[in-house]
Amino acid sequence: MELMYQRCAGLDVHKKSVVACKRIVEGKDVRREVKTFGTTTGELYALFDWLQLDGVEHVVMESTGVYWKPVWHVMEEGFELVLANAKHVKNVPGRKTDVKDAEWLAELLAHGLVRGSFVPLEPIQQLRNLTRSRKQFVQERSRNVQRVQKTLEDANIKLDSFVSDILGKSARAMIDAIIEGESDPDVLSKLAHPRMKAPPEDLRAALKGRVTEHHRIMLRIYLDHIDAINKAITSLEQHIETALEPFRKAVDLIVTVPGIGHEVAAAVVAEIGTDMTRFPTEGHLISWAGLCPRSDESAGKRRSTRIREGAPWLKPMLVQAAWSSVRVKESYPRAQFYRLKARRGSGKAIIGVTASLLGSIYHMLSKQVPYKDLGAEHFERKSKDKLIQGCVRRLKHLGCEVEIKQAA
């Protein structure tokens, strides 16, 4: 195999230790040296100096949890780094030790057999941390809202049957009154907003339950937790806005895509960055996000076209945005969805729309241009002759004689 790098190293990173292997080519000989270091800052700088003794230029490590990050921050000051996906660099069976892993990584890097993972710049990493934390807090808030609803059901309070938001202004006032000890349905129903659509007699019946002191304690704990989460989300959103300042132009471009709002645009920038030169084509970005059919063929047969697991923070969010874009009338995403749905079903159709949206974002960020919708008639314009021939065949099948004339 062709030798790509003569002086390189492989790092097997763990929580408390880093096993490093230097691979140095000297003439026709190959020298390998293995040493173990700790993961404290002083030990990492000792590793840095040890690698520079032999003029190592390229270093590869696996993306093991979050343990690779402090190693990466120290090593990027003096080396060309490659972050390898652990699934892509597995050794042959029966050769699994820390030393063998480090040697195997160095061997793969020396011959250019490691495909590096996408590691954004520090400002994008900080923005990514903020947007991911916000999503986690929102999910935690939703879980606590469900716990509130479960507790009310246990007390036979059917409030969620008549309000759309269990923590809306009216519902929250009623729950707070229940926590304070109020149990009279007439008094509780009067806390509802005058414009609430629920009939007063039905609301009073829904508020008549069997509330115990235990229910009040649990409701107070959940609501306090929700209030704390709301405060944290507000703080995160303020920090996100500050971190977005250098990327404001990219966010303004992405929000022109139908179905994508400010929060989704900020998360997209945090996940893929703004420098699209990291992805050679839009297909590479779509594949990295896990939105294209897998290649699984044997003996001339396609065995599976399922999309792979990838970009867990990006893909679900883009799929939700795609569903929103499909609801925009007279738009290209809507036309594409119904065109694919007729042949492949709604599941694959929405993934196709999602891939198209991500491809559009790729070109928008590459060329710094806003979104331009192709229109609902795009596919009809593209295959006009085929559409006419299909209609003619259908009419002839129904027993009609058809003569085609071009309109003036």
Short structural summary:
By secondary structure, this protein is of the alpha/beta class.
Number of H- or I-type helical stretches: 16
Give the terminus-to-terminus CA distance: 66 Å
Classify the helix fraction into a percent range: 40-55%
Gross geometry: flat
Question: In words, what does this structure look like?
Answer:
This protein has 408 residues and is α/β, with parallel strands linked by helices. Helix content is 52%, strand content 10%. It contains 16 helices and seven strands. Strands 3-2-1-4-5 form a five-stranded mixed sheet. Strands 6-7 form a two-stranded antiparallel ribbon. A hairpin with a 2-residue loop joins strand 2 and strand 3. The protein is flat and about 90 Å long. The mean pLDDT is 90.
Structural features:
alpha/beta; 5-stranded mixed β-sheet; two-stranded antiparallel ribbon
Topology:
Layout: E1 7-13, E2 17-26, E3 29-38, H1 41-52, E4 58-62, H2 68-75, E5 80-84, H3 98-110, H4 122-154, H5 169-179, H6 185-189, H7 200-206, H8 213-243, H9 248-254, H10 262-272, H11 282-288, E6 297-298, E7 301-302, H12 315-326, H13 332-344, H14 346-367, H15 378-382, H16 384-397
Parallel strand pairs: 1-4, 4-5
Antiparallel strand pairs: 1-2, 2-3, 6-7
Helix pairs in contact: 1-2, 4-8, 4-10, 5-8, 9-10, 11-14, 12-14, 13-14
